[in-house]
Every structure is written in structure tokens, then in C-alpha cells.
Amino acid sequence: MTAVVRFAPTIAKARLHEIHDSLVLALDATEKRGGGAYAQTEREARGYIRAALRNTVRLMEVGQ
Q: Environment class of residue 23 by beta-carbon count within 10 Å: exposed (0-12), middle (13-18) or buried (19+)?
């Protein structure tokens, strides 16, 4: 067994954590500070980010 194959699950898990952190940062960065309403495009974009975040969390749970 090669080292790449042996460490693949660890690398994949680390990447999922990086993706998770990036998605959380993206949500934080696009949050309205004054509590104002989001434009339709902003709501859609944030919805896609939240969906990606949920899927990433599911993948992280499966890998444990």
C-alpha cells in the first residue's frame, strides 16, 4: 500500500475541515451588520453557501 493511499482518509478529512471553515468565513463576511434586508442575489448566494455547509458537515460526520 502506498503512503498516498494509506493517508488519503486523513487528507480528505483535513480538506473537509478547510472547506467547512471557508464556508463559515464566507457566511460571516456576507452578513449584514445593521440587520438590513438582503437583496435577492445575496439571499440566493447565502442559501447556496448554507447548503454547501450542511453537505460538508454531513460528509464530515460520515468520515468519523
A: buried
pTM of the model: 0.76
Q: 29-61: per-residue pLDDT in tens?
A: 999 988 789 999 999 999 999 999 999 999 888
Cell readout for 24 is: 463559515
Contacts of residue 13, defined as CB under 8 A and 6 or more positions apart, other chains included, come to 60, 63
Give 1's DSSP letter: -
- Confirm if 49 and 23 have CB atoms less than 8 A apart: yes
Residue bearing cell 435577492: 40
- What value does the CA radius of gyration of the chain take, rounded to a whole number of Å? 16
Among 23, 25, 20, CA closest to 57? 20
Please name the residues in contact with 59: beta carbons below 8 A apart, sequence gap of 6 or more: 16
